[in-house]
Every structure is written in structure tokens, then in C-alpha cells.
Here is the input.
Amino acid sequence: MSSLSLQPTSQAQWHALIEDAVVASGVAVDEELKSYLIMLLMRFSADPTLFSRALAPDYLQSIDERGALRRDHLRDVGDKCLLFSGFFPGRSQRQRVSIHYYVDLGRSAYGLLGDLANSEFNRLYAALCHEFVLLMDVLLATRTLHGAPSILTPLQAQALWSATGSQQALQVLQQASQGMSLKTTHWGESLH
Here is the structure.
């Protein structure tokens, strides 16, 4: 993998990170969705309130709202769920929910946004709903660039892969399985 390179602006830095993660994960991501991820990371990187509110009440409240306020709240819920599932999956353990809770809630929020007839961005939000797991995998891949271990435990990876088909979770499971067979082989050899 390439070494960490510093970029002249925060936007360029996030762009480089996402591009590296897309290459590392071996997936094809639409340019519009990559741009959305970059803007999402920029928007929330300086937000100290990111972790301050529970998402389910915000989601339920947005259902009763109308117009721009509804769109903004649904977008925030979807965006936070994407960040929590892909960039901060450890949050789920602290909140005592599964990672796919964030996937389901985020996809639902983006799906509602995509269904809003008078939204100028309905195609984008429909794509975010449809490609949520792919984008989560790209964010998960950012955490393993440059040789860092996965932030997912094998147990989290098993649950996430079973619920969503996440390819990053599958890789964690395959690596854990290879590690276990190497340990078993090594342990078995030392007995002889």
C-alpha cells in the first residue's frame, strides 16, 4: 500500500484518503458518491456534536417534519449512520447496538430522502441508500490503509457480513480464519 502523503488542503487530504480506500477495497464507486463521502467527512470532521445525540429519536422526529427541515434531519441521520458504521464502528459496541443497526437506519433515512418527490437530490439519496454498504466498506477500508489492523472484531465482522454482505467484514473473517489455522498448525507442530 502507498505511504501516507500529506495534501495541501483538508479537502485534498480527504480526497486522497477516499481514493486510496477505493483502490484498496477493489470496488468501483461513482464519482458523485465519492464526492459525497469527501464532503461528509469534511462536514463532520470539525463537528464536536457528532456523538451528542441518539439517532433513532432524530429519525422519528424527522418523519413528522415537513420540507427542508425534514430533508436536513433525514440527511443528518443517514450521514451519521454512514460515519458510525464505516468510520467509527466501535461506537455500536459502546451504544450496545449492532453495526447493522446503523446500516438499516441510515439506508432508511436515505431511502426516504430518495422518495421525496420534490427533492432535487432524490437520485443521489436513492444511490446512497442502494450503495450504503459499499460506501461503508470504503470507510472501513480507510481504517486499514497503510497496514493498520481492522477496527472490526471477528465477532462484529461476522454479524456485519451476515446482515449486510459487507466485503470488508468478509475480509476480516478470512484474515481471522487464516490466523487461526496458522496458530492451530503451529501449535499442533509444537506438540510433535
